[in-house]
Design brief:
It comes from Microbacterium tenebrionis. This protein is mostly helical. The protein folds into 2 domains: 59 residues, no CATH class; 213 residues, MetI-like fold (Orthogonal Bundle). The protein is built from 13 helices and 2 strands, in the order H-H-H-H-H-H-H-H-H-H-H-H-E-E-H. The chain has a two-stranded antiparallel sheet. The C terminus is likely disordered.
Length: 284
Amino acid sequence: MSRSNAQSARIVRRAPMYALLTVIALLFIGPVLWMVSGSFKSIGEILQYPPKLFPEVFRWENYAQVFTLQPFAQQFLNSVLLMVLICTLTLVLAIPSGYALARVRPAGAEIFFLILLAGVFIPPEAVIIPLFQAAAQIGWVDTFYPLVIFTSVLSTGPVAMFIMRQAFLTLPNEFEEAATLDGASRARTMVQIFLPLVRPSIASAVVFTAWFSWNQFLEPLVYLRSQTMLTVPVALTLFEDALAGPRWNVQMAATTLSVLPVLIVFLIAQKHVVSGLTAGGLKS
């Protein structure tokens, strides 16, 4: 059989798989394309049947209305600030605790680790009322303090700690022994020896934390009151006309803009994400 015939036969054998992957890709890409397309349409074009993917006229004014109907620029900055603060506090908590659980292993470390992981499976709705009552008593309502602290400690911190613990477990003991012989302290060993080796896992923790904090809806809805303090997920629900109802085209424009920060974070860290998430598969 010639090379061209063999290549043709291989393509024919793989055609069903390619067709299936194309259908699956369209299921994920289709809503995003419809969102971007709808951000340039009028409300009538969005609701017309049969639907059209491309607008008759690209209405760039939809994006201008995003910033005129409400203080979306401030709300966007609020979400960016919260994402940065939550990522920072999460790493500050997760890296030392993950190192301690993996390398120091104090008494009761495994039990402590299991308790922290168990907390991840508690839905936020189950604890939002007592947390709100505590925040109200200390004057944290309509501030970012409960969003940053409660999220980092109860939600993103345990997951990031698990990622970091598994990453530290994969590193050989010889690195630590050599650092100890050179007189390095635990803190110096962690910072100068181990952290450069677990950068993929740090990137994975950052991407997860950024995604989680950016998409939070219930917590900002409960803790925040002022319109200028709101975050993007809550702000997206407020693009409505008192008489005509939701402004779907403006809402889709705002949603398109809201995707960009997490997408940028992922594109920057994507080469580290897969290797970071699989860290720990070699040694437990």
